[in-house]
Design brief:
alpha+beta, 2 domains, four-stranded antiparallel sheet, elongated, CRP-like cAMP-binding protein, cNMP-bd_dom, RmlC-like_jellyroll
Length: 195
């Protein structure tokens, strides 16, 4: 299992010692998920953290009408988990799905937790990661969901060209909280605004 990418990504948050890296890699396995496979289902216990080596992952919840509402998408070199469910040790409110064929490094939450208590540097990585991704990145996202129009949020999504080009129209519409028809209208408006 080649994990230099995984370790390098961790080290961008906080550098790990050789001993910590060895202990961490000992609990990791490389797994393959086909497109549309579920890594975690709503209502199931979240038992793993994932590092996405290749592919695209979506994270959705189900509304009262039974529709999938996408909250976030993960591209390569992302850490993926139902973090709140792991922390609270409760069933997940989210489903994590492979939107493309995916290769992940998977590590059990319980064993990882034990390593966090054993290795100070790993705990610092975890803290820095959570601060950056679940506080700094998440707050503007929450604000944007509440106050910005679907059109403005779509334009922000388009800025991330690689992600935008990989998503199906129904994923984008779901993420924006609109119907595919409304999305078509927004795209038409944007096209008309340009010309």
């Amino acid at each position: 299992m080649k994990n230099s990418e995984f370790v390098n990504q961790i080290n961008t948050y906080y550098p790990l010692s050789e001993e910590t890296i060895k202990d961490l890699l000992d609990i990791c396995t490389e797994e393959y998920y086909n497109k549309n496979d579920l890594l975690l289902e709503t209502g199931a216990m979240a038992r793993y953290y994932y590092f996405l080596k290749s592919g695209l992952i979506g994270y959705y919840t189900i509304d009262e009408q039974g529709d999938n509402i996408y909250k976030i998408f993960f591209e390569e070199s992302s850490f993926v988990a139902s973090t709140a469910a792991i922390i609270k040790n409760e069933p997940s409110d989210f489903t994590i799905i492979a939107l493309e064929d995916c290769t992940v490094i998977q590590y059990p939450a319980k064993a990882y937790r034990e390593l966090l208590e054993k290795h100070h540097d790993l705990a610092l990585f975890h803290m820095h990661y959570l601060e950056k991704n679940w506080v700094v990145k998440k707050e503007p996202l929450e604000v944007s969901l509440k106050y910005e129009t679907a059109k403005k949020r779509y334009l922000q999504l388009v800025e991330n060209t690689s992600l935008h080009n990989r998503l199906k129209q129904h994923h984008i519409a779901s993420y924006l909280g609109i119907t595919p028809t409304q999305l078509s209208r927004i795209k038409k408006e944007i096209h008309e605004d340009k010309y």
